[in-house]
Amino acid sequence: MDFDIDNFRSVFLRYTRMAHDFLPKMIEPHILDVGCGSGVPTLELAKMSNGTIIAIDVDMEALTKFHKKLKNSNYEHRITIKQISLLDNEFPDENFDIIWAEGAIHVIGFKKGMNACHRILKKKGFLVLLEAFAGIEKNLELFSYRGFKLVKKIVLPEGIWLKEYFDPLEKLIETIDYSELGPDQVKEIEKAKDEIEWVKNADPEELDCAFYIFLKN
After folding, report:
1. Is residue 126 part of a domain?
2. 196 and 210 part of one domain
3. Residue 173 pLDDT
4. Residue 185 to residue 195: CA distance in whole angstroms
5. Closest Cα to residue 87, out of 64, 110, 67?
6. What is the C-alpha to C-alpha distance for residues 100 and 102, in angstroms, rounded to an integer?
7. What whole-number distance in Å separates Cα of residue 76 and Cα of residue 93?
8. The pLDDT of residue 152
9. Residues of the chain whose pLDDT is less than 50?
10. DSSP string for residues in 170-188
């Protein structure tokens, strides 16, 4: 059996496209994808933007998976993968036209992540975040104070993570014959099961999220 959790994650790419379509047209923008994981949104950004992308994450397992996918794509010449943290990088000041982060900045910490992004983002560049309301809404003043103007908020449908990701994923996992899977796939499933258990015990409002698009003044 070919189990790949990225097939479930890709259902959200329509919202990635929606957020990207709001940005002004740019000629070959230089993009940083923070917390790229196995590259699901990164490959979509490459497809839409015709830009060059540096994709960063600290999870080597996810990046190894991304490397394999990248070799089988048409974007190997435009995407560079690095195992580094946003908080520990050597990027020049004002280096990127766009910084993209889907579900990553709250892990780093909003204040630290925002400051790191501000240094390496060009003036009039865009910071695009996908975050849960519960975390980012109370930190919006920090972004404004630091010089980021919120120009667009794209709210994802209520309960979408449950309806379109975790519920279908759980139903599939229940039907899986583990004897047909390799060790990497088993590990991926066990990690998914832990996430599903967390979601079941979480406040549903903690999962509702939106894309926040900021302009650096």
Report:
1. yes
2. no
3. 86
4. 15
5. 110
6. 7
7. 25
8. 97
9. none
10. HHHHTT--GGGS-HHHHHH
Encode pLDDT of 20-52 as tens digits: 999 999 999 999 999 999 999 999 999 999 999
Alpha-carbon distance of 88 to 91, in angstroms, equals 9
CATH assignment of the domain containing 111: 3.40.50.150
**Which residues constitute the domain of residue 179?**
160-201
Residue 3 counted as domain residue: no
pLDDT of residue 82: 98
**What phi and psi values does residue 9 have, to the nearest 5 degrees?**
-65, -30
Please tell me whether residues 124 and 195 are part of one structural domain: no
Q: Write the CA distances from 42 to 20, 60, 98, integer angstroms.
A: 12, 16, 12
What pLDDT is stored for residue 3 in this prediction?
Answer: 66
pLDDT score for 2: 61
How many domains does the chain fold into?
Answer: 2
Give yes or no for a contact between 118 and 149, defined as CB atoms under 8 angstroms apart.
no
| One domain for residues 104 and 210 | yes
Judge if 120 and 24 occupy the same domain: yes
Beta strands in 110-208 (DSSP E): 121-132, 148-155
Quick one: pLDDT at residue 88? Answer: 93
